[in-house]
Specification:
The complex is a heterodimer of chains A (527) and B (392). Chain A has helices at residues 5-16, 25-29, 64-83, 85-88, 97-127, 131-161, 171-174, 181-193, 197-226, 231-257, 261-292, 301-320, 332-352, 366-375, 379-392, 405-410, 451-459, 469-472, 478-484, 510-516, and strands at residues 416-417, 424-425, 437-441, 444-448. With 527 residues, chain A is mainly alpha-helical. In chain A, the strands form 2 sheets. Chain A has a two-stranded antiparallel ribbon with strand order 1-2. Chain B starts with 14 loop residues before the first helix and ends with a helix. Classes of the chains: A mainly alpha (527), B mainly alpha (392). At the A-B interface, α1, α3, α5, α6 and α8 of A face α1, α2, α3, α4 and α5 of B.
């Protein structure tokens, strides 16, 4: 066999230097942009009014194997902590009961967001034309699988080792009963995957991840730790290390469309809609979970919100995108008002509907009431007095025959569901900015609580047709609905949801609920 | 004590806080059922960790079979198309949550395997280079076959990788979605490994061209991969049904074309041309192929073909899809035969008889593993004859 000049050169080189040589991830990645080719049908299956540039780069230049190495190292640390030291110190049984309940919701609902983000980033991987941009989204697809599994692991861990497994062990089945579920699906599920691909990216990456993962995934670890929970910080901070890459993906989405004419026409409207969509649910729900779902308080939610959402995101992050024509959302000012009172309004309703949950809720103690009043002056006169009345009427005691939702009915304070956000609100008993707006289309009434959602519905009502729980369950008795939704513990009769976390308190059963005879009614029918 | 905690005090380690917490905890657990997802039907005797962490994460309503939620989607596409819908595929299932990765790999297990492969790749390449193995590779094989045609095959893998994007978006089950994303990542990994090998060779062999220009030209304009390129383009962007994408790619094209190119051409022939570098990479691809085969056979054979309500219909559809994708794949293999005129023939290895034997192995495997389970009647001898007609 004749030896080529190249082989001879390689042989000569070896004679001089036999240093081991390998190939680094970056050496492979630098060719990635040339992996694609043009052909007639090469277009996305998901329409977008924007045009993503063909030469968009990604910031985290990973190849498949290097991605796996990086994640595997993080997994070793995380699961090592959980399975070793935290188990040996019985950490799951050293979490305050109120926080144990909050994690039933936080971890499971975040799991839904992470899960839907798999599909969302699959859509973006399809929509992008530049291989590097596709690669960035691909990395996120895999991350979101990781996060889905991680969130599941929290519930799995608490179920296996903690003080109250119910709700942790079946959240994926029982979560659909209550009033918080549909709103969560809007922000964490459909908002990420159903729409213009770039609009979905804005929802997921530019708002959901760049704005709300900081309070959701970082701030929550401080609250968890204060309340004895070291499992959540172990897992969530590991999740957050990936979120940086996702925020970079969102940034690159904007970069990729920056020179497209459509961006100057639509981008700020899409951003405003996405921000309002996300904040409408997260602002009240996160504030509620932190403040009402904990015993030990870290700081008022309004301060956390102001730091992460208003200053860090609305100011700095969006400011960085200013050179691409991005402006802070017009709805940010209204959201700031929500950050003060909306979570208090929501907890009042959530507690009133406690039997539909898959977690236990707790009325504020006297000490907590003082904290609320000190941080939210006016809290007591609006909410404190109501909780005192509910407690006096025996709302925690199954023998009382009193469910707080009765108070709303007795006092003519109907609870509506906002058609677009699916968040419940009570316009006649609320300190937040909610106002009732009712519109009718094809003989069906729709309620709205703010101008931003109403505008979205007015321009595209066919996107928001989902029934709410009052429509779905209208005319049905409450215990029947709970039983159908599997809202009971393994004895087949005791509710998973309870209106207290007292270790001495009696637990409510289906029979206790049935005796009350509470029947769902659609408040829109009364209008 | 005060309920306000500042300065990073931790409830687990701060004695004062810990006491309050422990006093509030019930004396005994409130619930005895500690098994997460206890309500589900496991594939084996017990619910395993993979099933616990993955199953029922998909929040579909019950009108998509297997869903536990109710009602409509809270936000739809512009115009009112639903987030996920039964119409996204012609296949029918009584439960879209049935699929299992036979290896029960959730994310942590999946990346652990791949991370080990990466570390071992790094060690292998260092040893290979220090040992001077590169001197033994036949220059034609190295410069033309590895440089150009292996490089061009990377585009086939990259195109198949991209065919998983819409399937990852549109599929109707959680274990499906995770499996699809993972087998998609394996495909881009293959494309990247091919480029890694070419980059590695460029470091060792002065003048070896690691650029993708020539391979891309071969892929887009050459005759050897013409049929393959057209088939991959159709799977990637011409097909909307997510099940058909997976079926075409993983039940027809890759087990035939992909297996012949990887196993019977590059892997089998490389050692005859003094190349023991390529088998290292191709063997990793073959591992991924084997794992993917387990996954897609579970999707189509274990779940859809024997579905209690739709099994017969699904099998008919799979037969129709086989009719559609098989001729294109055979044509792609026929075009690929042109590569044998580019290499020095080795008797018993790359002559016509050896090629025919290799084709028989590939078609026999495919018939046994993919066609027979759905009762697909196929004349493999005729197909092999068609493929061989492509020999120059």
């Amino acid at each position: 066999m004749a030896i080529s000049s190249a082989t001879k050169a390689a042989t000569d080189a070896l004679a001089v230097n036999r240093a081991p040589v390998s190939v680094g991830a970056q050496e492979v990645h630098r060719w990635l942009q040339s992996f694609t080719w043009d052909f007639d049908k090469n277009r996305t299956k998901y329409s977008t009014k924007y045009k993503m540039a063909n030469d968009t780069k990604e910031q985290f230049k990973l190849i498949a194997k290097e991605y796996a190495r990086m994640e595997s190292v993080k997994d070793e640390r995380q699961f090592g902590s959980l399975q070793d030291v935290l188990t040996r110190v019985d950490a799951a049984n050293r979490v305050h009961p109120k926080w144990n309940e909050s994690m039933k919701v936080i971890s499971n609902f975040l799991e839904v967001g992470e899960y839907n983000a798999i599909a969302a980033t699959g859509m973006l991987w399809d929509s992008a034309t530049a291989p590097e941009q596709k690669n960035g989204y691909l990395g996120q697809v895999l991350d979101e699988i990781r996060h889905t599994n991680q969130c599941g692991y929290i519930n799995y861990y608490f179920a296996k080792q903690g003080q109250d497994a119910a709700g942790h062990n079946d959240a994926r089945r029982t979560r659909a009963i209550g009033p918080l579920w549909k709103g969560m699906k809007r922000v964490f599920s459909d908002g990420f995957i159903s729409g213009d691909a770039v609009e979905c990216s804005i929802n997921l990456q530019l708002v959901g991840e760049a704005c709300f993962t900081n309070p959701l995934i970082v701030a929550v670890t401080e609250w968890a730790s204060a309340n004895g929970d070291e499992m959540t910080p172990t897992v969530f901070l590991s999740i957050e290390t990936d979120e940086l890459r996702h925020m970079a993906n969102g940034y690159q989405t904007v970069v990729s469309i920056a020179n497209d004419e459509a961006a100057s026409k639509y981008l700020n409207t899409d951003l405003n809609n996405a921000f309002w969509t996300q904040q409408k649910y997260f602002t009240p729900v996160l504030g509620m979970m932190f403040e009402y779902g904990s015993h030990f308080k870290v700081e008022p939610w309004v301060k956390t919100w102001n730091r992460w959402v208003y200053e860090d995101w609305g100011g700095i992050w969006i400011g960085r995108l200013g050179k691409y024509g991005v402006e802070s959302p017009a709805s940010l000012r209204d959201a700031k008002k929500d950050a003060y009172w909306a979570h208090h309004d929501l907890f009042l309703i959530a507690y009133a509907l406690w039997p539909t949950g898959f977690f236990r809720l707790t009325l504020p103690t006297a000490e907590e009431a003082e904290w609320y009043e000190a941080n939210y002056p006016g809290w007591y006169d609006m909410y404190g007095v109501v909780y005192e009345e509910w407690r006096a009427r025996g709302c925690e005691d199954p023998n009382s025959g009193f469910l707080p939702i009765q108070w709303f009915i007795e006092n003519n304070h109907p609870v509506y569901i906002d058609r677009v956000s699916q968040v419940p609100f009570c316009p006649s008993y609320s300190k937040g900015a909610s106002t009732l707006r009712v519109l009718e289309l094809n003989g069906k009434k729709h309620s709205f609580s703010d101008q931003w959602g109403e505008r979205m519905w007015l321009s595209e009502p066919e996107r928001y047709e989902c029934q709410n729980i009052f429509e779905q369950y209208e005319g049905r008795e409450l215990s029947e609905v709970i039983a159908e939704g599997h809202g009971v513990r393994s004895d087949g009769k005791t509710l998973i949801a309870q209106p207290h976390t007292s270790k001495d308190g009696k637990l409510w059963t289906l029979d206790d609920i049935k005796k009350i005879g509470c029947v769902f009614a659609d408040p829109l029918k009364a209008l | 004590m005060s309920i306000v905690v500042s300065g990073g005090r931790r409830g687990l380690t701060d004695p004062e806080i810990a006491k309050v917490i422990l006093d509030a905890i019930p004396d005994k657990p409130l619930e005895t059922q500690r098994k997460m997802n206890y309500f589900m039907t496991p594939r084996g005797k017990r619910i395993n960790e993979y099933e616990t962490l993955c199953c029922y994460t998909q929040p579909t309503p019950d009108w998509i079979p297997g869903g536990l939620d109710w009602g409509d989607w809270t936000q739809k596409f512009h115009g009112g198309r639903p987030s996920w819908s039964n119409e996204s595929t012609e296949m029918h299932s009584s439960d879209w949550h049935r699929h299992r990765d036979p290896a029960f790999r959730w994310h942590a297990l999946y990346v652990k395997d791949k991370a080990e492969e990466w570390r071992y790749t790094d060690r292998f390449l260092k040893a290979y280079s220090a040992d001077g193995h590169v001197r033994s590779i036949d220059p034609v094989w190295r410069d033309e076959v590895l440089g150009d045609y292996l490089g061009a095959f990377g585009f086939s893998e990259y195109g198949l990788f991209n065919s998983h994007s819409s399937a990852t978006r549109d599929c109707l089950g959680d274990t499906l979605r995770m499996s699809i994303a993972m087998i998609g990542l394996d495909k881009v990994d293959n494309a990247q490994m091919i480029q890694a090998e070419r980059t590695f060779l460029a470091k060792l062999v002065p003048g070896f061209d690691e650029s993708t220009d020539v391979p891309k030209n071969e892929w887009t304009k050459g005759s050897i991969y013409k049929g393959a390129r057209e088939t991959v383009e159709e799977i990637w962007q011409g097909t909307y049904d997510w099940n058909e994408i997976l079926f075409a790619g993983h039940m027809i094209y890759d087990p035939l074309f992909g297996q012949f190119v990887r196993r019977e051409f590059f892997l089998r022939l490389s050692s005859y041309y003094g190349d023991n570098l390529t088998p290292f990479f191709i063997n990793q691809m073959q591992l991924y192929h084997s794992q993917t085969k387990g996954i897609t056979k579970d999707m189509f054979h274990t779940c859809l073909a024997v579905d209690e309500n739709f099994g017969d219909y699904n099998v008919s559809l799979m037969n129709m899809w086989s009719d559609k994708w098989l001729p294109r794949t055979v044509n792609a293999m026929k075009d690929f035969m042109g590569i044998f005129s580019k290499i020095p023939t080795i008797a018993g290895v790359s002559d016509k008889a050896a090629i025919e034997a290799a084709l028989e192995r590939v078609f026999d495997d495919w018939q046994r593993d993919y066609a027979d389970p759905i009762g697909y009647k196929v004349d493999t001898a005729a197909m092999i004859k068609t493929v061989l007609s492509g020999l120059k």
